[in-house]
Amino acid sequence: MVERDLAIRIMPCLDMKEGRVVKGVHFVDLKDAGDPVENAGFYQQEGADELAMLDIAATVENRKTRLAWVRDVSSVIRIPLTVGGGIGSLQDIEQVLAAGAHKVSMNSAAVKSPDLVREAAGKFGSERITVAVDARRNQAMPSGFELVVSGGTQPVGKDAVEWARKCQELGAGVILPTSMDGDGTQAGYDLAFTRAVSDAVSLPVVASGGAGKLEDFHDAVVQGGAQILLAASVFHFRILSIGEVKAYLRSRGLRVRL
């Protein structure tokens, strides 16, 4: 099992479409946010601990992750790169890792075929397998959160927190919960969802969706139980710098990666 690292990590996220970094609200209304290679190099210089790159249209368009994007981005950074979007088989994972990714993130494919998580962890190691858990509020679910797939477009009638727990059992190394209700809003992470997942698993949990101000990052750790803080809009549009976030977290007494 992958143990939690007590030091907090900052992880900018490159949402990719048609070769460009984009960012929307609730996964729609996309705006251009620049060149992926330039962004990746910039974030490494800024002190990012890890980088995520998500091919947001791959599953919806029923295609694989574009490996050229992975090669281009991985060639300019030394920090770990997590790649997601359109990964549906062991062969896909092998190709993405060979293209330069350190980890892969699965979502829809894992829900469709849970054995893929177990097989991937067995073949490549748990530390390389992240499962993204997208959810929306639904009081009919035991936790109040329903699992959604296909870029947030399809509810699947499963409890999202129970699914996160199952992913740990299957061998995942990291859980990346994103609340559809908060994505891109800059209104703060969905702390209730993040905390529900972090309480359910002993793996590192990535806070994702909605970071807008310095306090949001602190709250994600203290109230949400997250160890890795993913953000896109605030970094892409230069609202906050990674250095500012790290300095703020240290000033609030949290241990942050140097």
Write out the CATH superfamily name.
Answer: Aldolase class I
Summarize the main sheet.
12 strands, mixed
* Integer tally of domains: 1
What distance lies between the first and last C-alpha atoms, to the nearest angstrom?
25 Å
Give the proportion of residues in helices.
25-40%
The CATH topology is: TIM Barrel
Can you tell me the residue ranges where pLDDT is under 50 for at least 5 consecutive residues? none
Secondary-structure element sequence? EEEHEHEHEHHEEEHEHEHEHH
Tally of separate helices: 10
Task: Please write the CATH class name.
Answer: Alpha Beta
Class based on secondary structure composition and strand pairing:
alpha/beta
Number of strands: 12
How would the blueprint of this fold be written?
Elements: E1 9-17, E2 20-25, E3 28-32, H1 36-46, E4 51-55, H2 67-74, E5 81-84, H3 90-98, E6 103-106, H4 108-112, H5 115-124, E7 129-137, E8 145-149, E9 154-159, H6 160-170, E10 174-179, H7 191-200, E11 206-207, H8 214-222, E12 228-231, H9 233-236, H10 242-251
Parallel strand pairs: 1-4, 1-12, 4-5, 5-6, 6-7, 7-10, 11-12
Antiparallel strand pairs: 1-2, 2-3, 7-8, 8-9
What are the main properties of this structure?
single chain; 258 residues; alpha/beta; TIM Barrel; 12-stranded mixed sheet; 10 helices; 25% strand; globular
